[in-house]
């Protein structure tokens, strides 16, 4: 054993948390006589270290001897020790692996998962603990240290194990006093390298976890009084996650956690995460000097899906790159706990000195729920460079909340930078939002919010962005000292918003009366556009409109007005106008602001779009295809499966569509489907994002950057929406050609 490892021997009481005024104070506590505890060499108990004989029984005998002696260290000299069965940890025992020592996993021989009456509240891996290389319950003063490794060997299971298989390296419940690290490496852990639940007093220093080829790194669940330092995790799923589930049949506390100097990477998922399992409350978390080099979901993720109150969390000195979303906070309504909790909260969260490059295709987001806003969040010296690359989208369209916690679940946000929805008391100081590529969206939007304060904001403007900073249905916004990266002033939008620092901006308001009109195809109707000065001295306002459907045109008299002047908007329809009810949006722009106003237009006596002559080349599954009159949330996606849509973009709701057969996804027939449309129309195809853009979706198909979603059991699936204009007549579409059956069949709609 190394001298350093010897210093860890019997660090049982590990750490003592002192709550002082301000950050947590820590001190290591060594019990009396701890440095003189006995060492038990596993070879003395019959371990071979040859990599082929099952050395687990010998290890268990050494653990029993150490425990019987009142505590000790079980030492692994250099060698490869096959753990062909489960190792049962005991109190007052530390496992120490010397440099050159590896404890190696096997494909079978492990304890079967214990019964758990609370299975329904979390997945299998979180619910069962005995199907592991090493497990223990209700233990005190234990440790895993040394310069060696515990390696699953690629034999552990990433899904639900069969009897005899393991899905974890280390699995601990209700432990008190845990030390892990001192140069130790955990590798190829199956579902988890380490899973701890219901523990207290946890200390980790110099721990390396490599689960990049399987799933999670370290899940810290319902655990208090934790210090983690100098940790390096490369995971495929979540790297370092703090959770609170119902696996132990109770709502347990979490908190008093410090993480210093962490290097994290997550392939598909979250680098540093709260949730998604969030039954118990979380408070007092301090993250310092964090480096994140990849995350397929969030770099810094925080969700309260199951009623948890998450508060008093500090992120300081964080560097991120290659994240799908740099920052994601969301309050959800899943409420998957035995107590049937109310909706939770997120409050008192602070980010300081955070830098992100290539920081997210999905914008940093704070997303609360009606009546349950995210509150009291500060951003100080946050500098993010976002990838850009999106065309303009409707900046006033609120993303559809599918109920999932994945940053992708809200689709492309209306802002390339921060997007806030249902948030209160949010402060930004010295924040910079930049673009790696051009983008047509604003830099910042707050929607349905209160008390939003931005000071010393710097943003980069995309060439086609309608404005830079937007406040939509916000009471009490304040924008001070905001500028473009080029040095110019930002352009704002303040729809139904009030300021808490008046007189600082040149601004105007826009409104439209009446709120709705009905017109018979072939005739016209009018609306009045009202403008007013709200602060400063705005310039002349240019008017235009969006939302016109086929057969509808809009004109303004006059097209440019002085602030405070009205204009008449005339809507003219032809006999070929499309029947339906749809919003028209008036946009008023001057040099410093862009404002919006909407009214509803109903067209009658015109033309309905119809789909006919549906023909499917996949004859084996053609009977499951059908034409449906109205696409809606709750509609069954496929004719051969029961799953339903949980999210439908607003502009697709109510349009005719084709319910496909999921089994047709493997067909390579080209064309796979033909049908007719009675008038010129736009055909829409929703493609599973796991497949990506299909080969026949050439550049004439426009990626709308919106998504359909469905819920399959407990998993949400996302379908990117592409559109193309077609003349009346026959439409032919190619195959999904997912011959491996790895994803879902596409969906078709016509508008």
Tell me about this structure.
The structure is a single chain. β1 and β2 form a beta hairpin. The strands form 6 sheets. The protein has a 7-stranded parallel beta barrel. Strands 44-46-52-48-50-49-45 form a 7-stranded antiparallel sheet, with no helix packed on it. A 5-stranded mixed sheet has the order 35-42-41-37-39, with no helix packed on it. It is mainly beta and 751 residues long. The chain contains 3 helices and 52 strands. The longest helix is centred in the first third of the chain and has 13 residues, at 56-68. Among the domains are: 361-366 and 378-505, no CATH class; 509-604, Immunoglobulins (Immunoglobulin-like, Sandwich); 611-750, no CATH class.
């Amino acid at each position: 054993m190394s001298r350093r490892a010897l210093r860890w021997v019997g660090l049982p009481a590990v750490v003592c948390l002192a709550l002082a005024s301000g950050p947590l104070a820590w001190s290591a506590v060594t019990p009396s006589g701890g440095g003189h505890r006995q060492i038990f060499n596993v070879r003395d108990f019959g371990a071979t270290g040859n990599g082929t004989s099952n050395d687990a029984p010998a290890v268990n005998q050494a653990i029993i001897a150490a425990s019987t002696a009142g505590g000790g260290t079980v030492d692994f000299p250099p060698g490869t020790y096959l753990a062909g069965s489960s190792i049962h940890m005991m109190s007052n025992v530390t496992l120490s692996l010397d440099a050159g020592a590896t404890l190696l996993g096997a494909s079978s021989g492990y304890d079967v998962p214990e019964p758990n009456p609370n299975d329904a509240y979390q997945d299998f891996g979180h619910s069962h603990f005995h199907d592991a290389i090493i497990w223990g319950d209700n233990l005190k003063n234990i440790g895993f240290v040394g310069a060696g490794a515990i390696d699953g060997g690629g034999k552990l299971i990433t899904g639900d194990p069969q009897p005899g298989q393991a899905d974890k390296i280390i699995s601990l419940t209700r432990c008190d006093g845990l030390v892990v690290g001192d140069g130790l490496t955990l590798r190829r852990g199956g579902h988890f390298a380490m899973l701890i639940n219901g523990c207290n007093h946890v200390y980790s220093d110099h721990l390396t976890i490599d689960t990049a080829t399987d799933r999670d790194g370290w899940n810290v669940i319902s655990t208090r009084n934790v210090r983690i330092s100098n940790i390096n995790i490369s995971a495929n799923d979540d790297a370092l996650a703090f959770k609170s589930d119902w696996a132990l049949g109770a709502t347990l506390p979490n908190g008093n956690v410090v993480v210093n100097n962490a290097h994290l990477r997550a392939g598909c998922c979250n680098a540093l995460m709260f949730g998604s399992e969030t039954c118990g409350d979380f408070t007092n978390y301090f993250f310092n000097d964090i480096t994140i080099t990849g995350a397929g979901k969030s770099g810094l993720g925080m969700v309260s899906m199951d009623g948890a109150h998450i508060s008093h969390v500090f992120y300081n000195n964080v560097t991120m790159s290659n994240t799908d979303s740099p920052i994601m906070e969301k309050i959800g309504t899943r409420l998957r706990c035995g107590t049937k909790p109310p909706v939770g909260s997120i409050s008192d969260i602070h980010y300081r000195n955070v830098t992100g490059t290539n920081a997210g295709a999905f914008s940093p987001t704070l997303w609360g729920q009606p009546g349950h806003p995210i509150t009291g969040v500060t951003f100080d010296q946050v500098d993010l460079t976002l990838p850009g690359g999106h065309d303009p989208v409707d900046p006033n369209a609120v993303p559809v909340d599918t109920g999932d916690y994945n940053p992708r679940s809200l689709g492309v946000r209306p802002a390339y930078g921060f997007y806030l929805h249902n948030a209160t008391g949010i402060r930004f100081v010295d924040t910079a939002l930049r673009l790696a590529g051009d983008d047509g969206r604003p830099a910042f939007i707050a929607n349905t919010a209160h008390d939003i304060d931005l000071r010393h904001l710097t943003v980069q403007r995309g060439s086609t962005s309608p404005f830079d900073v937007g406040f939509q249905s916000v009471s009490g916004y304040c924008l001070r000292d905001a500028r473009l990266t080029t040095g110019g002033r930002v352009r704002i939008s303040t729809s139904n918003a009030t300021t808490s620092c008046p007189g600082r901006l040149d601004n105007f308001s826009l409104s439209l009366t009446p709120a709705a009109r009905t017109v018979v195809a072939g005739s016209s109707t009018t609306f009045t556009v009202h403008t007013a000065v709200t602060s400063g001295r705005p310039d002349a306002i240019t008017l235009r409109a969006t939302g016109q459907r086929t057969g509808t045109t809009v004109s303004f008299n006059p097209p440019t007005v002085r602030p405070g002047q009205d204009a008449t908007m005339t809507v003219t329809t032809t006999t070929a106008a499309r029947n339906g009810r749809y919003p028209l949006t008036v946009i008023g722009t001057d040099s410093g602001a862009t404002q919006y106003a909407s009214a509803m237009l109903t067209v009658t006596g015109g033309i309905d779009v119809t789909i006919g002559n549906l023909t499917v080349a996949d004859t084996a599954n053609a009977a499951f295809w059908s034409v449906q009159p109205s696409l809606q949330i709750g509609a069954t996606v496929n004719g051969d499966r029961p799953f339903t849509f949980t999210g439908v973009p607003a502009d697709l709701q109510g349009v005719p569509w084709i319910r496909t057969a999921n089994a047709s996804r493997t067909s390579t027939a080209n064309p796979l489907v033909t049908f007719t449309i009675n008038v010129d129309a736009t055909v829409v195809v929703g493609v599973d994002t796991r497949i990506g853009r299909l080969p026949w979706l050439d550049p004439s198909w426009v990626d709308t950057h919106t998504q359909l979603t469905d819920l399959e059991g407990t998993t949400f699936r996302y379908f990117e929406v592409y559109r193309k204009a077609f003349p009346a007549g026959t439409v032919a579409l190619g195959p999904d050609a997912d011959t491996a059956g790895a994803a879902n069949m596409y969906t078709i709609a016509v508008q």
